[in-house]
Every structure is written in C-alpha cells, then in structure tokens.
Amino acid sequence: MAFGWIDEQAELRRRAGLVRTLGPRPADSPLLDLASNDYLGLARHPEVTEGSARAARAWGGGATGSRLVTGTTELHAELERELADFCGFEAALVFSSGYAANLAAVTALAPHGSLIVSDAGNHASLIDGCRLARGTTQVVAHAEPDAVRKALQTHDGPAVVVSDTVFSVDGDAAPLAGLAEACREHGAGLVVDDAHGLGVLGDGGRGAPQASGLAGAGDVVVTVTLSKSLGSQGGAVLGPARVIDHLVNAARTFIFDTGLAPAATGAALAALRLLRREPERAARARAVARELHARLTAAGLEAVRPDAAVVSVRAPSPEGAVRWAAECRAAGLAVGCFRPPSVPDGISRLRLTARADLTEGQIERAVRVIRETRP
Ligand SMILES: Cc1ncc(COP(=O)(O)O)c(C=O)c1O
Predict the structure, then answer these.
(1) How far apart are CA 165 and CA 304, in angstroms?
(2) N or C: which end of the chain has fewer CB within 10 A?
(3) Helix, strand or coil, per DSSP, at residue 301
(4) Does position 18 have pLDDT exceeding 90, yes or no?
(5) CATH no. for residue 248?
C-alpha cells in the first residue's frame, strides 16, 4: 500500500510517547507565556503591529515575487541597512525565515571540496544546511574549540566552522572567541547563528558576536531570525559586503524563494527601532532568565544556568516531560517541551523562555506552578 510505512512509523512514535500534536493559540490566551520566543515582549507592541499593518497597506499581503524580481521593497533595504548597522556588520540580507538564512549561509559558503565543521548541538536548520552543502561535514563535540582545531587540521582547502551562538535546547552559549581563534589559525570562516542572541546579548541586544568582539570581522558571518526578540518573522545574514553579494548571486533560498512579506518586514523594522530606543529590554530579559534559574534550582529542580534567555529544566522522561508541560498548561502556564528527536542527547526538558516584560509576580507564579506539577 502506498505510504504504508507511515503507519508503522506512527505506531513506533506512539509507543515511544513521541507523538506531536498541534494546539492552536487563541488571540487572547489567558495563559502565562513562557513558551514563545518573544523575548522582549515586542510581538504585540503597538509600534510593531502598526509597522506591520502600515507595510501591508502600502505594499500588499505578500512580497509578490523573489527578492531578485519584484520582492524587494524599500522596507527590505531599510531593514538590511539598519540591521547591519545595529549589529556592527558591513551588510545584511533579509530572507523569508531564519531557517532559509541558515540554509543559504552554509550552502553558499561551503562549496565542493570544502570542509564544514559543525557543533554537535547545532540547530536543525544549520544541520540541514550542512546536508545540502557540497562540502564535507565533520560534526565535532559540543562547544569545544580544540575539537574544531583538530577537525580543521585534517583538511587542506577552504573550511567553514558553523555554530549556534546560544544553543536552543539548553540555552548555553558557544565559546565564540575560542572558535574564532581556532578558525584564524587555519584561515577558516566562522558562521554563527545568533537566533537566540540578537536582542538579548551584547550592548543593548546587539547580539553575541558583538558581545564577543567579533562584530564586523571580515571572517565572521552571522545569521539571525526576526521571529524571536524582534517579534516578527523572517531571517537575515550579516557579514562582509562581498559575502552578502555572493549570497545574492549564489544562495538558492534567496534566489528561488519569495521575498519576506512586507508586513513581517515592517514589523521587524519597527521592533529594531524600538530596541535601539529601549536597550534596557535586553538586560531585563537576561535578568529574568537568571531569576527563573535561581528560583527553580532553589526549589530543587535541575536547570541549566542560562547564558541568554532560554532556561532548560530536566524532565525524567519524554512522557514525563509531556505530562509536566500539560499540567503546567492546566494550571495556566505555557512552557515548551523538548524531547527526542529534537534533543541531541536524548534528555527531555521543559524549555522556558524569559521575557523582558515578565513581572516579579509572574516569575514567582511560573516557578510555583512548575514546582507543584513536577512529576
Ligand atoms: C537556533 C535557531 N536557528 C534558526 C531558527 C529558525 O528560525 P526561523 O524560525 O526564523 O525559521 C531557530 C528557530 O526557529 C532557532 O532556534
């Protein structure tokens, strides 16, 4: 029977407690939200929603074509200029998602005959970039510049090292300075995904590369998403102008993809301008994460010390994690739930995101619910 193997896979998933289901989010959810990636609380900020609405009214509901044909508006160009300037890079290129930005950066910068050195904890979109690239990938131990060094020593030719700046599962930061040093010893490029760093780390949220002194470096390329701290949708690659020009000409997820919708572009631009005006939002998101971690560990829970705004709490099993998250939800708290195959080490977790706009009372309530529903 066609697709018969799907039923077998579904049965295996069911037995392992790994079935995923979709739960629509109402427009006005009564839940306390520690599950979204809206780190700075900007997704519903009136300036951001107005930026989105204004752009849709001016340019329409969609971009109407690829960026190279009809899909580039003035807003795309403004967003690229302002993002590059904010993060300290020469140029930027906006994509329809962070996922597409990662596929673009890795595939276009790792041609046939090159080596890609990829951290074992990297996000799926970087992993898929490695799979699609013509270069050969070597996966190395998580957050270990020496492992990167060793891998680079095995290769004679172009090489690129790819890593998240903040890992999405545990919220730990990559050793960016050490990675850059290893790259420079071997003349390799460094591509880092700052999805969870932009808006949270660095001066006023300028991102992890800026915090590590790598902003504007000629051998560093950064990818970001517009869907987390900027409360919109879309992605971007930032780096030297010659790299950005190369992507315009070579990145398939740029060339063969409809441009980012005007509404999302307008929202991201409004959010970026707001962040410039209110840089304290970044430090507040980090402080909320530290506070959540301190209170959770004081309550005897096993949580990873957050380097940015992601707080990860260990769960006993995939089923335990699903039950725990469901009980939190029943008690009015939305939390993320990570379990295999979305985790590299097989350990299931509750994943909490700190938001800059959480109050002390909300933090206290969240910790109480998590503690009381613990399996
Ligand atoms: C580390 C990381 N990179 C890339 C992405 C993909 O970004 P987008 O959702 O904009 O496609 C995500 C999550 O969504 C992420 O967590």
Answers:
(1) 16
(2) N
(3) coil
(4) no
(5) 3.40.640.10
The CATH number of the domain where 338 resides is what?
Answer: 3.90.1150.10
What spacing in Å lies between the alpha carbon of 37 and ligand 1's midpoint? Answer: 10
CA of 193 to the centre of ligand 1 (A): 9
Last residue of a domain, one of 218, 249, 277: 277
Find the domain containing 144 and state its range: 46-277
Stretch (H or E) spanning 76? helix 74-87
Please check whether residue 94 lies inside any domain of the structure.
yes
Alpha carbon of 128 to ligand 1 centroid (Å): 12
**Number of structural domains, the chain?**
2
Q: Are residues 81 and 93 in the same domain?
A: yes
Q: What is the DSSP string of 332-373?
A: TEEEEEE-TTSSTTS--EEEEE--TT--HHHHHHHHHHHHHT
Give ligand 1 pocket residues (Cβ under 6 A): 97-99, 102, 123, 125, 164, 168, 193, 195-196, 225, 227, 235
State the distance from the centre of ligand 1 to the C-alpha of 127, rounded, in angstroms: 12
For residue 342, pLDDT over 80 is answered with no
Task: Please give the pLDDT value at position 225.
Answer: 98
pLDDT of residue 198 exceeding 90: yes
Q: Whose CA is nearest to atom 3 of ligand 1?
A: 195
CB 128 within 8 A of CB 85: no
Overall average pLDDT of the 110-115 stretch: 98
pLDDT above 90 for 45: yes
Is residue 345's pLDDT more than 90?
no
Q: Which residue has the CA at smallest separation from atom 9 of ligand 1? A: 98
Q: Is residue 6 part of a domain?
A: no
Percent of the chain beyond pLDDT 90?
92
Asked whether residue 169 is assigned to any structural domain, the reply reads: yes
In the listed set 277, 306, 341, which residue is the last one of a domain according to the structure? 277
- Specify the DSSP class assigned to residue 61: S
Mention every residue, 6+ apart, whose C-beta is less than 8 A from residue 52: 232, 263, 264, 266, 267, 270
Residue 318 pLDDT greater than 90, yes or no:
no
User: What gap in Å lies between CA 143 and CA 209, rounded to an integer?
Assistant: 15
Residue 15 lies in a domain: no
Which atom belonging to ligand 1 lies closest to the Cα atom of 235?
A: 10
Do 309 and 267 lie in one domain? The reply is no
Residue 347, pLDDT above cutoff 90: no
Whole-number Å distance, alpha carbon 261 to ligand 1 midpoint, is: 17
Give the residue, by CA position, lying nearest to ligand 1 atom 16: 168
